[in-house]
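INFO  loader      accepted 1 record
INFO  loader      residues=272
INFO  predictor   begin
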Amino acid sequence: MMTMLAAKGDKGDEEIRDWSSLPELILNILKKDHYYYLKDVCAFRGVCKAWNSIPPPPPKDHLNFIEGLPKLLHIGMDRLLIKFYEPILCRTITKSIPEMGCGRVISHSKDGWLLMAHHRKFDMFFFINPYTRENIQLPRLPENIFVDGISFSSIPTSPDCMIVGVVAEARGPRFVYISRGEDDWHISPYKRPWKTEIVVCSSIIHNGRFYFMVGDGSVLVYDPRQERNNALQSVKRPCTSIEKGYLVVCDGELLAVVVLGSNLPQDDITEW
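INFO  predictor   done
INFO  writer      dumping tokens
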């Protein structure tokens, strides 16, 4: 039997104890952090006979999430099974979430919550937490208003949660927004006309302002508190051949990530 040493009394005075006397609280911590794979189970239960009674791990598809670990979400073609991949543990958890099927589309995500569109018209939205299955329905957008990009400032259970969307129309962009507790969406007047055809690639709310990236790599900002939008001229585009663009917040900083064209000459790539 494996043994461990425990200090007792004066310096140099030690008591030899076996692993079966390890407090249950510590055992539970060990199980929570490491009890996922067969090799871990065998090693865990092989320490001493007292640990052999510990039940085997649950099936792989029914493992519980560990709070705080980053996860990648993948929705299959049938949209019935949702896969969550935890890269730190190298494991995949599969769950059935019917609320995310039937043509529904993920429009934005933040802090474990998803903002879903009921269908591809993007005029009806709801929040869902894929871990707890909690969902929150939102009022329907006004008639003939369909957003091209939408995001939310904080989790929907937060009192300061705001949702902002952009409507890309030929006459110029319009914005819709709603705060928690409100029953109707607010609609901004038309802004200045677009210079070219606009395709909204990504949108995000940062420090109370709504940023959205368009197809040519430009980033525009709209502040619902001031009812205005401006181009961010300080952002230098790396090139003119941008296939996709994303806006993300990392360590409190707003970043733009772009995917360059595959046929782009190497000498056309510059530092941002």
